[in-house]
Amino acid sequence: MRRQFDEELDKLNTDLTKMGHLVEVSIENMIDAFKNQDKELAKEIMTNDRLINDMERTIESRSFNLILRQQPIASDLRNVTSALKIVTDLERIGDQAADIAEIIVSFEEKHAYRTVEHIPTMAKKTKIMVHEAIEAFIKKDLSTAQMVIKMDDEIDELFQEVKQEVVEIIKENSERIDFCMDFLMIAKYLERVGDHAVNICEWLEFNQTGIVNEQRLI
Amino acid sequence: MSIKIQAKDLNLYYGEKHALKNVNLDIEENKITAFIGPSGCGKSTFLKTLNRMNDYVKNIKITGNVSLDEEDIYDSRVDTTILRKKVGMVFQQPNPFPMSIYDNVAYGPRIHGIKNKKQLDEIVEKSLKAAALYDEVADRLHTSALGLSGGQQQRLCIARCLAVEPDVILLDEPTSALDPISTLKIEELLMELKEKYTIAIVTHNMQQASRIADYTAFFLVGEMVEYGKTKDLFSLPKDKRTEDYITGRFG
Lengths: 218, 251
Prior knowledge:
The complex is a heterodimer of chains A (218) and B (251). Chain A is mainly alpha-helical and 218 residues long. Chain A has a single domain, classed as Phosphate transport system protein phou homolog 2, domain 2 (Methane Monooxygenase Hydroxylase, Chain G, domain 1, Up-down Bundle). In chain A, 87% of the residues lie in helices and 2% in strands. Chain A contains 7 helices and 2 strands; from the N terminus they run αααααααββ. In chain A, strands 1-2 form a two-stranded antiparallel ribbon. In chain A, a hairpin with a 2-residue loop joins strand 1 and strand 2. In chain A, helix 1 (3-36) runs antiparallel to helix 5 (118-139) and helix 6 (142-172) packs antiparallel against helix 7. Chain A is elongated, with a radius of gyration of 19 Å. The two termini of chain A are 26 Å apart. With 251 residues, chain B is of the alpha/beta class. Chain B has a single domain (3-246), classed as 3-Layer(aba) Sandwich (Rossmann fold), CATH 3.40.50.300. Helix content of chain B is 36%, strand content 27%. Chain B has helices spanning 43-49, 80-86, 101-111, 117-130, 134-137, 150-162, 180-193, 206-212, 230-235, 240-246, and strands at residues 3-14, 17-28, 32-36, 60-68, 71-72, 87-90, 168-172, 198-202, 215-220, 223-229. In chain B, the strands form 2 sheets. Chain B has a 6-stranded mixed sheet with strand order 6-7-8-3-9-10, with helices on both faces. In chain B, a hairpin with a 2-residue loop joins strand 1 and strand 2 (17-28). The interface between A and B is medium-sized, with 14 and 15 residues.
């Protein structure tokens, strides 16, 4: 009865899955580039960020046209509007991976990845959060989403630990201040990635219930 | 919140056909309540039970209760003329009488005993203004109503209804036969009228229900499946049948 509508919704889902995959690859590559100080890989991440940005526009356009032509309501409306919201978060995660990649390209210090002890842990956990958030959204899995939201507290604590570590490094050797500022930026970007993963999970809650952060929106 | 009309355990049979099945529904005063559902679901049948228009149908049997202001409208002592004055009806096809615009609106008051010309003039003007039609017809009140456009004729039917000072206005797909602009004019009119009247409307147009109705009831095969605030029903329907219907997964 609504073949065209259903086809459009399927395409929207496919696009979201594809964008989610691109973002996950960006995060994985960023961690690999960071660990191995692979500047070529880092440059690739920055170039590929364009693909993620293009996907954001594709999904936005598809969503706007769906709303224009089909006037979706009920679950269809929640699917289209939550897709619109999460593409912003996915795009920002892509940006943060590219921003970290830009810093990696400029690093001179060897073994930079392990210099600040808590950064590898932060990176691993944000990678898990991004993966689980995207999976949860695609599978409409609220309980995984809840788990991701809780993980954000750990990321925030790790960020505070990193700040402390950086302060200690600067106290020991004030010439390392530039290097330490880069690490602080990396940690901040990772912390923001965690926040965006949480946003994706919150929009999943909206997708299923019409509620975000205990506020009924629809 | 005040209930104007209440249907309780309402069943209606056309001969053997069980057309309305245990309908329980409260219609709130000064609100617009929409009835939606596929063709043949019983929504128009239900609408007509609210002012006993079904009385004219042969082999009809009704059990249960419909009350207006807590009084049973099916009580044998009820004067159906008075009932239909209080609970007016507008139909899908505009049906102006073949007489002047003025006489169309004055018809009801005259039937109810008003003969004073000045009084009738006032009622006609007031009703046409309330139906947002006066400005368009003020200079030709004594011309034939049949010369009006479809949208104007429908507003005339609403004015005719208002002229007898109803409490409730029932509308059975009032804009199905009208163009989009006339439709929007009628919708705006209904939004204004609900300040003073209680309105129930049958509609096939889901967007119309979501634009103007405070409450919506979904009917399916004689059953009232779900009823609630329109924004809740259209955003998070509780029943899968409601979701499937409003999203077009079945007609």
